[in-house]
């Protein structure tokens, strides 16, 4: 994993830092695993804008990802590590011995030609998917299920990982990427290793146009709005805007929004740090 700082030949490239793409082995995706991806531009079925700051962007095709890893005890080989425009992590193309091909989220250190396995009989090596009961304590894991058979929902973005802390009956204690410690059913699947593309956080766009390529439209600062548009708007001159809060009045910067009556609160042992 590496990043490249471009030479300042144009104003937009002066501060730009791009991915080195050292881990990428091909630029041609597997056609059988591509699906169309329609853009909404933030509009609903009536054509009315319901989400601001969305629109434009480069045309994309969706890569169908196997988050469930439900092809148990069938050996597979990593054919390639590829870029996926729909997520921050890289994806790996697996070829199973029965001829089927699937995309999975690539872990850091995954190599082309590596043998992967999913299921109870897999060994705790990078890229293998196993139930939490079979994973040794202290192991770095990612792509974690919260309900058995649901598919991976936690620790899926670039560079993230969780750690298996303890096992107790039908629950395992896992320290999540946010710092939260919570209980997860032991039957849930997880993949060994941290997610690839850990240098993603070091990238610098360099210019506003790159946000437009990614489908993000300009955002108006709340303090520049009128009081009718935002709680932080209005005032004479350059007013500070008051306490930072969202458009619908919910305070930002530390205000806890999680419901105190949420049914899953009992599974959280330690909240993430303030």
Detailed description of the structure:
The structure is a single chain. The chain is an all-beta fold and 274 residues long. It has a single domain (3-40, 54-200, 264-270), classed as Beta Barrel (OB fold (Dihydrolipoamide Acetyltransferase, E2P)). Helix content is 2%, strand content 23%. It contains one helix and 15 strands; from the N terminus they run ββββββββββββββαβ. The protein has one helix spanning 208-213; strands spanning 3-5, 17-19, 34-36, 61-63, 76-82, 91-96, 101-105, 115-116, 129-131, 140-142, 162-168, 171-175, 181-185, 189-192, 268-270. The strands form four sheets. A seven-stranded antiparallel β-sheet has the order 9-14-10-11-12-13-15, with no helix packed on it. Strands 7-6-5-8 form a four-stranded antiparallel β-sheet, with no helix packed on it. Strands 1-2 form a two-stranded antiparallel sheet. The longest helix has 6 residues, at 208-213. It starts with a strand and ends with a strand. The mean pLDDT is 96.
């Amino acid at each position: 994993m590496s990043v490249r700082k471009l030479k300042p030949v144009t104003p937009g490239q002066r501060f730009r830092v791009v991915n080195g793409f050292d881990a990428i082995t091909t630029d041609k995706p597997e056609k059988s695993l591509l699906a169309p991806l329609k853009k909404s531009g933030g509009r609903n079925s009536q054509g009315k804008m319901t989400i601001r700051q969305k629109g434009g962007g480069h045309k994309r095709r969706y890569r169908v990802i196997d988050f469930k890893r439900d092809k148990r005890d069938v050996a597979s080989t990593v054919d390639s590590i590829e870029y996926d425009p729909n997520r921050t992590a890289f994806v790996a193309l697996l070829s199973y011995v029965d001829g089927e091909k699937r995309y999975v989220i690539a872990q850091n250190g995954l190599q082309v030609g590596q043998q992967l396995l999913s299921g109870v009989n897999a060994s705790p090596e990078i890229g293998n998917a196993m139930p939490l009961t079979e994973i040794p304590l202290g192991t770095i894991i990612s792509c974690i299920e919260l309900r058995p058979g649901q598919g991976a929902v936690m620790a899926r973005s670039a560079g993230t990982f969780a750690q298996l802390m303890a096992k107790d009956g039908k629950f395992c204690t896992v320290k999540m990427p946010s710092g939260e410690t919570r209980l997860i059913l032991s039957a849930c699947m997880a993949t060994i290793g941290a997610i690839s593309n850990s240098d993603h956080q070091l990238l610098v766009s360099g210019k506003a146009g790159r946000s437009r390529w990614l489908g993000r439209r300009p955002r108006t600062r709340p303090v520049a709005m009128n009081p009718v548009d935002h709680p932080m708007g209005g005032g004479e001159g350059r007013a500070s805007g008051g306490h930072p809060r969202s458009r619908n009045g919910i305070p930002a910067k530390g205000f806890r929004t999680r419901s105190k009556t949420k049914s899953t609160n009992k599974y959280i042992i330690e909240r993430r740090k303030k």
